[in-house]
Design a protein that fits this description.
Layout lengths: L27 E3 L22 E3 L11 E8 L7 E6 L7 E6 L2 E6 L2 E7 L8 E8 L3 E5 L2 E2 L8
Antiparallel strand pairs: 1-2, 3-8, 4-5, 5-6, 6-7, 8-9, 9-10
């Protein structure tokens, strides 16, 4: 798959490994997550009960800057409980972006600074995009945007 390279600092396609084809910050699998068929080619699948995850060193994207775009195809295995999307590397177990009871939650340093309810979140594939511009964060689900939250960064 081709992608624009201008301004792109990292790209992980997660087809068979979590390899960064742009920035060289490759992921390390723990407890053997799998790579079954996904929305486009394969997809990284982690089972929380098996403590499966993929870690990437701090790459300047999370926790060190207020300007970022994070985009992924996501298919939840269930709609209940808290389901981490990305966790803050510097504070293991502290989600940065997660789904909780139909809401998308953004947390910094253990403090929730944005929570937006989308309504019914299902177990189908959806495109999620998180954009921070230094003055707020906007979340997109399948191209539809949330309101800007000025305290999100």
């Amino acid at each position: 798959m081709s992608f624009p390279s201008t301004g792109l600092t990292h790209y992980w396609n997660a087809d068979s490994a979590f390899t960064d084809s742009v920035g060289g910050s490759n992921g390390t699998d723990t407890n053997t997550p799998t790579y079954p068929a996904g929305k486009i080619n394969n997809a990284l699948t982690c089972v929380a009960a098996s403590s499966q995850y993929t870690s990437v060193s701090q790459v300047g994207l999370l926790g060190t800057t207020n300007t970022y775009t994070f985009n992924l195809w996501l298919k939840l295995s269930s709609t209940g409980g808290n389901q981490a999307i990305m966790m803050n590397y510097s504070t293991p177990g502290n989600p940065l972006f997660y789904i909780s009871g139909g809401a998308v939650v953004h947390s910094k340093g253990g403090v929730i600074d944005l929570s937006y309810t989308w309504g019914a979140i299902d177990t189908n594939w959806h495109m999620w995009t998180f954009v921070g511009d230094g003055s707020g964060m906007r979340t997109y689900l399948d191209g539809n945007s949330t309101p800007v939250a000025s305290n999100a960064n």
